[in-house]
What we know:
Helix content: over 70%
Order of helices and strands: HHHHHH
Distance between the termini: 17 Å
Number of domains: 1
Largest sheet: none
Amino acid sequence: MSRIGFAARVARGAVAGLVATAAMSGQMMAPPSTDRIGTPPPRRLADVLLPRESQRDRRIAATVIHLGIGVVGGVVYRVLIAPRRSGPVSGALFGLAVWLVGYEIVVPAVGALPPAHRDEQARRTALIEAHVLYGAILGSLG
């Protein structure tokens, strides 16, 4: 693959990741998800990682964290998975894998939430739904 072809995949993945993350965020911020999730996990991450910063700066950091993870996920999907199998089903499975790694390993490692298997069922379900939506959109755009 040429450098231009690779760069185009990266750019398409980044844009798809941004769009999918925006849709996911919309779902997470709308009832009934807000009732089940409580404080959004990106905000919990920012609160743990940046405890001395102002609330405003932590809100900004939470947005950057969430969009950044979504964009990186879009690039990973577009570069590694989409060339072999792209579509809403493979994307949804990818979104589920992102949730699994994030909520079983990364988020608990920084102390923002317990591992998913020990977390509240309602939050776990809402976050799985949001990540499947993220992935399905990513796969549809990829």
